[in-house]
Amino acid sequence: MKCYELQGPGGIEALALVDKPVPAPGQGEVLVRLSAASINYRDLLTVKGGYGARQKFPLVPLSDGAGVVEAVGDGVVGVAPGERVIGSFFESWSAGEPSEAKMRAALGGAVDGTLSEYRIFPAHALVRTPAHLGDIEAATLPCAGVTAWSAVVKLCGIRPGQTVLTQGTGGVSIFALQIAKMAGARVIATSSNEAKIARLQALGADVTLNYKASPDWGKKAREITGQGVDLVVEVGGVGTLNESIRATRIGGTIAFIGAPAAELRLPLMVMQQQRLQGVTVGSVEDLQALANALALHQVKPVVDRVFPFSEARAAFHYMSSGAHLGKVAIAIG
User: Fold this and answer.
1) For residues 291 and 296, what is the distance between their CA atoms, to the nearest angstrom?
2) Are 78 and 62 a contacting pair, CB within 8 Å?
3) Angle made by CA atoms 221, 238, 175, in degrees to the nearest 5
4) Are residues 104 and 142 in contact, defined by beta-carbon separation less than 8 angstroms?
5) Mind listing the pLDDT tens digit for each residue in 238-265?
6) Residue 260 has what DSSP assignment?
7) What is the H or E stretch that residue 36 is in?
């Protein structure tokens, strides 16, 4: 089989296409012939050396993949050859609260990922692909999709009539918009690009704000709602958290996914009794819940562009450009 390996520091151009034997599934394991994978911002950081000395080499990158069961090992029940499946981001986190042990094996980081023609998965880490999704669409769910699901539904419990603010047009933000609308919420979405703002409106955003034209977008969001939003899905990192705090109502929540800003409005957060909720993807159970919700509402992920397996490096460069809206995917087979 062919797969890409990050064999050492060196960035995108250091990704090497290598040949390896197709592995055989052992006890409780499943061999999946991967059809598609998708790129997350975390994968880009990994390839560019953002994790420094903690980085494992060699590494098959990417956490998200979907495909067809090729073979099963002894003791596997409920999964059969020919079935379409999605692999979970954390293979050891089946359900319940997170823990160090459950979060140790993250695909494309601590263990080899999905930029490969075949991969072995524990049977318990697989979820059946919803019938209305193709494999490219399914391959966008495990990281960005589950992160947005955890932020909007699992951890923050958004209800009909509440207001959610999303930032930008990356994978997590687009999923958060779609999931918030499924939950019956009003969505305020931000972007700096008018063409992308039009797309956000087409996807159901009730209000859009251009954060370059209105750098005080947090204040404007508070004015629009009259009291502030119930939830901000905070992915911007440096330079956005202050405005997120301004946008959030008294008692509201900021689902924190991006890196922190250097100077924060922490006194305002304290005075308004806001909650800062860290979000790091989710469990196999969460992936299943997301798949069930998408199937019920017949919602499809937004895929910006699909690259062939032979052009995986170009896919990373495109992701790095920031030109995408939604997900960047790679067709493997």
Assistant:
1) 9
2) no
3) 60
4) no
5) 679 999 999 999 999 999 997 655 567 7
6) P
7) strand 29-39
